[in-house]
Every structure is written in structure tokens, then in C-alpha cells.
UniProtKB/TrEMBL annotation:
The lineage of its organism: Eukaryota, Fungi, Dikarya, Ascomycota, Pezizomycotina. Signal peptide: none annotated. Keywords: Hydrolase. GO terms for molecular function: hydrolase activity. InterPro entries: AB_hydrolase_fold (IPR029058), Dienelactn_hydro (IPR002925). This is Dienelactone hydrolase. Pfam families: DLH (PF01738). It comes from the Eukaryota. Coiled coil: none annotated. Gene3D superfamilies: alpha/beta hydrolase. The keyword Cell inner membrane does not apply. It comes from Botryosphaeria dothidea.
Amino acid sequence: MTASQSMPPSCCLLGTAWTASGTPTGRIGTLASKNAYIADADRTRAVLPIPDLLGWSFPNTRLLADAYAASAACTVYIPDFFDGEVLSFAPVLQDRWDELDVPDFVQRNGRDVREPEIFACARALKGEEGFERVGVVGFCYGGWAAFTLGARAFNDGGERLVDCVSVGNPSLLTEEDVDGVGVPVQVLAPEHDPVYKVELRKRTFEVGLRAGVPFEYQHFSGRRACVFREVG
């Protein structure tokens, strides 16, 4: 990712109806030695959201975890993959981007740094936590991680690392990530996204059709990705 693709506009802070007055109801625990927000429900099914750059503490993200737990009867874990570092919400809400160093934040939390920790959390769900089935949801930054966890290399033959993945306007995604998918996958893609470019979308669609797993691609006409945009 380049610095010219790193400024999120305030629309990424807009959510559904619960955001104005909702209060997260989950608890703080740990997963693979990482602090995690946990929305408890059924102990056989787990969902691992990998959030965007606003991280595990963003209220909308926690409210979404609560909604997943309630509607899908699953336990949801949102680990702190940024080791306590949080992008300040106020500058984002007020478009004060000069107060944020987003490119540096992305560099400090790149794939080479966070991938081992993300894999450790995924493994812990079926390992130490004893869940039977695990789904992964990756939003923007988390998109590459969801595809990687769902790779054929980790889910071929016997026991799967994860059982399905869903991504929304994925970033940091490579052709190799797309080509390797080996579990059911859902992709939610706005029409306008400077990071998830048309060529990679086409490849995603083509690979999904011949990957031999359930595949869903939803294209949102007229919509724009709101966590990254080209600037300067």
C-alpha cells in the first residue's frame, strides 16, 4: 500500500441504526495471549472479525460483534491486532487528517508483522477454545488476512483452519491470496475502490467460479470504499 492510498474519509465512521446510542455488551478477555473483545453465545461456532484500521476498540466494530453473536448464535472474538495502538477517532470524524500518520500506521502493522499473530488467534479458536466451526470476516485492512486464513494450503484435506471467509472492500490483497482460496468465500465490493482495483476484482470472480467451493460476490453499484482513497 502506498501513501497515496491511505486517507480514510469520515464516511467510514457511519454505520447502521445502533451506532447513535448503542452500547457494546460484550466482555474483554484474551485469545492467543492477545486482548480481545468477546461477544458470547454458542460455544460450538465462532466468528473472527479482522477489523479495519480503526481497530478492536471502535464502538461500531464491537456493536457489530454483538449483532453477529445475537443473530447467528455464535461467539465473536475481536483481538487487538495493533497492540494497543489506536487511531484517534476525533480527527477522522472531523476530517483533520494532518493529525494522523496513516501510512506509518499501516507500515507498522503490515502483513509481515501481524500475520503470525492473526494465524495464532485463528488456530486458538479450534484449539484451546474448542470451537467446532470458525468463520472469518475481514474489513478493508482485514481483507488480506481473511483470504490468507482461508487458503487451500491451510484447509485442504482433513481439519480446516477456518470454515468460511467473508470480506468487505479488501485491501492489501494480492493475486496469490485470491488464487489460493480453499474455503467458501463471500466478497462484498463497492463499485468505486482505488485499492481493490478492477483487475483484481475480475480475478477474484474468475477464481471464485472455478475454486470448487461456494462463492458469492456482491457488487454494490454506485457505492464507494470509504476507508482508503487516493490523495495528492
